[in-house]
Amino acid sequence: MRLDRVEARRVTLPLRFPFETSFSRTTTKQFLLVSASADGVTGHAECVADVDPFYLPETNVTALHVLRDFLVPLAFTLDVSHPRELAPAFSRVRGHEMAKAALEMAVWELWARREGAPLWRVLGGRGGEIASGVSVGLQKDEAALLDKVSAEVAAGYRRVKVKIKPGRDVALVEAIRGRFPALPLMVDANSAYTLDQADHLKRLDRFSLMMIEQPLGWDDIVDHAALQRRLETPVCLDESIRSGDDARRALELGSCRIVNVKVGRVGGFSGAIAVHDACRARGAPVWCGGMLESGIGRLANVHLQTLPGFTLPGDTSASARYFEEDLVDPPVVVSPAGTIAVPEGPGIGHAIVWPRVERATDLHETWRRP
Ligand code: OSB
Ligand code: MG
């Protein structure tokens, strides 16, 4: 298969509520929607880069540059006999995992559509349903946080993650635990602490948290290993894991006991499968993170989570938590039992609502094979 056209659209969607973390406060979601075509069939994928480099170094502008000037021209030289050939071909470009992932995932989605198969089947997963968890941003005070957590528990979510940062951590977790003694609960610091604060973080050990996600440096695995030795609570890495090899190294070093995988952060589905396999081979649980994706990226995450190593609920929640109107129809919904149905249709399996995409698009580039 030779690609004959690749497109990138820059799409902006308002978020229903601002999403606040230790590193930023997001009120609108802007992303690149990448489409790859061959022989009259087109696959689509959502890039997880953001407008700013506050989570990881890439932005929508760097992703567009790297796609336009390097990855797309490279992809046009390939005769693809399977989408897993994209990642090794892209390895000449160092870093830029989010840009790579967007094109790689679009080719997997195209591949699935060509086969008339749901994405999960070409990824090696299974149909059925997945368990759903939620990520709750920083709230204005303890009462607001307790209200939010109560609403998510009532909605059926199987696990709740709350964002923390210095000054907004131990007391909040204590309050949630007081109200919900048996709730599968975890926290995510997005690199807001340093190893000097290990004694403080140790105070979280009393609350039987499932894990603490990315407490230290965004590119660190050495200090995290020192921290994990001092904590009972399992450390989970997010930002620090950019490949299957990163997952292997972090687990071997004892930097974490659990891994969050985001397809967009590890260069695409091949990278995500490599992370999954590295964890599974070492008996470490892996779960799927999220980046406030529209339904297009959200469904890609649903399909990925049908691989057997995904033993914990991830951050894939209902479209309606973020968007008044999603770009897919039907939107992603969560049952009262806290599950999401795995689609059976070709590719991501839900229809993309093109008039909504076009309305939300302010820039559209098309590249053709020379
Ligand atoms: O650290 O997991 C994170 C959102 C944006 C950037 C980083 C993170 C997150 C989330 C939200 O936690 C997960 C989601 O609901 O999509
Ligand atoms: Mg995280």
Topology overview:
Blueprint: E1 5-20, E2 25-38, E3 41-46, H1 60-76, H2 86-90, H3 97-115, H4 119-123, E4 128-131, E5 134-136, H5 142-155, E6 160-163, H6 170-179, E7 185-188, H7 198-202, E8 212-213, H8 222-230, E9 235-237, H9 244-253, E10 258-261, H10 269-281, E11 286-288, H11 295-304, E12 328-329, E13 339-342, E14 351-352, H12 354-360, E15 361-368
Parallel strand pairs: 5-6, 6-7, 7-8, 8-9, 9-10, 10-11
Antiparallel strand pairs: 1-2, 1-15, 2-3, 4-13, 12-14
Helix pairs in contact: 1-3, 5-6, 9-10
Bound molecules: 2-succinylbenzoate (OSB) and magnesium ion.
Q: Could you please describe the fold and organization of this structure?
A:
With 370 residues, this protein is an alpha/beta fold. It is 34% helix and 21% strand. The chain contains twelve helices and 15 strands. It has helices at 60-76, 86-90, 97-115, 119-123, 142-155, 170-179, 198-202, 222-230, 244-253, 269-281, 295-304, 354-360; strands at residues 5-20, 25-38, 41-46, 128-131, 134-136, 160-163, 185-188, 212-213, 235-237, 258-261, 286-288, 328-329, 339-342, 351-352, 361-368. Strands 5-6-7-8-9-10-11 form a seven-stranded parallel beta sheet, covered by helices on one side. Strands 3-2-1-15 form a four-stranded antiparallel beta sheet. Helix 1 packs across helix 3 and helix 9 (244-253) packs parallel to helix 10. The protein is globular. The two termini are 15 Å apart. The relative contact order is 0.17. The structure holds 2-succinylbenzoate and magnesium ion. The site of 2-succinylbenzoate has 11 residues, from loops.
